[in-house]
Amino acid sequence: MNAWSDARGPFPSTRLRRLRRHSWLRELTQEHRLAPADLIWPLFILPGSDQSEAIASMPGVGRHSIDRIVQQAEAAVRMGISAVALFPVTPPALKSPDGEESANPENLICTATRAIRQVVGDRLGIVCDVALDPYTSHGQDGLVRNGYVVNDETIAMLCQQAINQARAGCDCIAPSDMMDGRIVAIRSALDEASFHDVSILAYAAKYASAFYGPFREAVGSAKNLSGGDKKTYQMNPANTDEAIHEVALDLQEGADMVMVKPGMPYLDIVRRVHETFHVPVAVYQVSGEYAMLKAASQQGWLDERAAVLESLLGMKRAGASAILTYFAMDAAQWMNS
To answer: pLDDT digit string (tens) for 60-90?
Structure first.
């Protein structure tokens, strides 16, 4: 015997590298898999037709008129992406302190939903954002009274918004506002309007994050916010137990799925939610995450394909059932190639 042997034979008897030796073995023993069907593609809607605008802080992502959004929805179907998430770029002239345009059944998000549904039918899910920030002149997600975002009055607006979206053909209402009690109110409003089958994806653990900047540029709310913040209703990034409380309340109120936002900095929250509740969990790879990965890739500091797919796989591994990402089309193409 030598230093690497004992009575039982050569050291070590357990060699985990054996299962990494061949590509077929690595595939066979892989614990988690990422597929285009795991993805939801966020899209920004412009007024008009045959219009597109680049978003400077999100290279490769743009705002598009409804006719082009429909084309993107058709492309998503071809690539096997499960759903698109719609966000309107409301013209400044239609913004107001109380965000009345959010309740207009002919607004951008409702019109786009009808157009997509007419072309793709049930082959693609349509997720509609419910919040007031795209429509308010102050950029907050709710109604402001005496300098404070009020809760209950805001919820009444959110309910009307959700009903209009359901009438337009939305499959899934996604309240991103973080008002208390809005899930039970929206569920009740949908049921009373006979939209029993329209699901709710609650932004249950949405943090007051520094990673939202490019999104606010994309929907045109950054200037309206004028340096303000959303810390009185979005969550403190230092808190984890509070996220569990938020998720529990939203599930009790009737949420079908829950979301953690942002993504990579909050994968510990995704894991806790997944292990605590055993319900479908979505995670949003937000605009700041996209911008960082894209900028580093453009500088040649990262392999874009490898880094993006690894980041998405990490979200899946943490417990996400669905991932909202601006890389959805690129990621689907890479996975399908």
So the answer is: 999 999 999 999 999 999 999 999 999 999 9
* CATH number of the structural domain spanning residue 72: 3.20.20.70
Look up residue 334 and give its two tokens: 């890479």
Give the ranges where 17-151 is alpha helix by DSSP (H): 23-28, 66-79, 108-120
Cβ atoms of 84 and 125 within 8 Å: the answer is yes
Residue 25, in any domain of the structure: no
Q: How far apart are CA 81 and CA 312, in angstroms?
A: 14
With respect to residue 300, please indicate whether it lies within any of the assigned structural domains. yes
Count other C-beta atoms under 10 Å from residue 144's C-beta: 19
Closest CA to 65 of 85, 83, 44: 44
Tally of domains in the chain: 1
Domain that holds residue 211: 33-336
H helices present in the chain, as ranges:
23-28, 66-79, 108-120, 152-168, 182-192, 213-219, 222-225, 241-252, 267-277, 287-298, 304-318, 328-336
Query: Would you please indicate which residues are annotated as catalytic (active-site) residues?
Result: 206, 261
Structural domain includes residue 305: yes
Residue the block writes with tokens 């929206």: 186
Q: For the chain, which ranges sit under pLDDT 70?
A: 1-10, 222
Residue 283 pairs in a beta bridge with 260, 323
* Residue 47 falls in which region: left (phi positive, over 0), alpha (psi -120 to 50) or beta: beta
CA distances from 253 to 75, 76, 202, 302, 314 (A): 35, 32, 10, 43, 29
pTM to 2 decimals? 0.94
Residue 17 placed within a domain: no
Per the CB < 8 A criterion, the answer to whether 313 and 291 are in contact is no
Q: At 54, phi and psi to the nearest 5?
A: -75, 150
